[in-house]
Amino acid sequence: MISYARKQPLPVGVTFLLVLAVTLRPSFSSDAVTTTSPPLPPPPPSNPERGDYNITNNGTVCLMAHMGLQLNITHLSRSTTKAVQVIVNLHPNLTTPSGACEADSSTLKLSEENINLTFIFSLNSTTNKYHLSGLQLSANLSDMAQPLIVSNSSLDYLSGTLGHSYMCRAEQTFSLGQNFSLNTFQLQVQPFGVTGDQFGTAEECDLDEDNMLIPIIVGTALAGLVFVVLVAYLVGRKRSHAGYQTI
Ligand SMILES: *[C@@H]1O[C@H](CO)[C@@H](O)[C@H](O)[C@H]1NC(C)=O
Ligand SMILES: *[C@@H]1O[C@H](CO)[C@@H](O)[C@H](O)[C@H]1NC(C)=O
Ligand SMILES: *[C@@H]1O[C@H](CO)[C@@H](O)[C@H](O)[C@H]1NC(C)=O
Ligand SMILES: *[C@@H]1O[C@H](CO)[C@@H](O)[C@H](O)[C@H]1NC(C)=O
Ligand SMILES: *[C@@H]1O[C@H](CO)[C@@H](O)[C@H](O)[C@H]1NC(C)=O
């Protein structure tokens, strides 16, 4: 009776955690192994490189944008005369930014060979809120049966407060109809009220907030589990001890 109480097996929860720790361990070592094995072909499409684009007004930076951009274009192929879908990443070192800053609107035009992509931001001076109100794409890829021109000037994306920057680390997709959508990666923009050549405090998109919630929830759940296991273990020990005393 006594020895049974003393040699009480580990609670199921502790065993579970141990099993978890043991099963998680090999995944770290296999990460290390992949560096020595032949590299797998990268899964297409690869994420675009992040570009750093500034627009200046009388020598001061008035618009700043930091982002990776990927175009998702559907067009008629000249060679096969069929509709094809292509993914085109903008290459920051081949991209020329231009644009202008005005009181209530600012423009960022990114030009690469055969591609012009223009962002139009609007500022509402009553509410001191800005947003991406327009996007224009003009593309003339080599296999296009005819140049593609798409624009929409009544958008409401990337909404932020004057003096702050808008940030979204997660991938976002802005669709402009059937033939064109824009994927953004690791984005931070400030189209108005840039002071001291740097971004104002960032206003983070909801997607990022959600992504941050997941580790918090997992962490809290694990901490809760450890607590429950501990309490169960202590109560179990006390019970068996108490049982021994009453007998
Ligand atoms: C491109 O757009 C098509 C349809 O619009 C969609 O099915 C596909 O997932 C998109 N691809 C990427 C990489 O965004
Ligand atoms: C991009 O804009 C430049 C300057 O306005 C123009 O010369 C060029 O043809 C445009 N390219 C495309 C693909 O529209
Ligand atoms: C600014 O925002 C207010 C409130 O949303 C709206 O009523 C007004 O029309 C906006 N002004 C402009 C110029 O868009
Ligand atoms: C422009 O985009 C808005 C919001 O996505 C959409 O409601 C509207 O129909 C679009 N306008 C045109 C002309 O495509
Ligand atoms: C944009 O401006 C910032 C702040 O002045 C500077 O650090 C950065 O190097 C500039 N980037 C480019 C591409 O000019």
Can you put this structure into words, describing what you see?
The protein has 247 residues and is α+β, with helices and mostly antiparallel strands. The chain has a domain at 51-207: Beta Barrel (Porin). Helices cover 28% and strands 40% of the residues. It has 3 helices and 13 strands. The protein has helices spanning 2-6, 12-34, 206-246; strands at 50-57, 60-76, 83-89, 96-101, 105-112, 115-124, 129-139, 148-152, 157-161, 165-168, 172-175, 180-190, 202-204. The strands form 2 sheets. Strands 1, 2, 3, 10, 11, 12 and 13 form a 7-stranded mixed sheet that branches. Strands 4, 5, 6, 7, 8 and 9 form a 6-stranded antiparallel sheet that branches. Helix 2 (12-34) crosses helix 3. The longest helix has 41 residues, at 206-246. The protein is extended. Mean pLDDT is 84; it is low at 1-10 and 12-34. It binds 2-acetamido-2-deoxy-beta-D-glucopyranose (5 copies).
Which architecture of the domain at 51-207 per CATH?
Answer: Beta Barrel
Distance between the termini: 10 Å
Radius of gyration: 28 Å
Approximate helicity band: 25-40%
- For the residues shown, what is the average pLDDT? 84
Which cofactors or ions or other ligands sit in this model?
Answer: 2-acetamido-2-deoxy-beta-D-glucopyranose
By secondary-structure content and strand pairing, the structural class works out as alpha+beta
Q: Using the coordinates shown, work out and report the CATH topology of the domain at 51-207.
A: Porin
What is the count of helical runs?
A: 3
Number of strands: 13
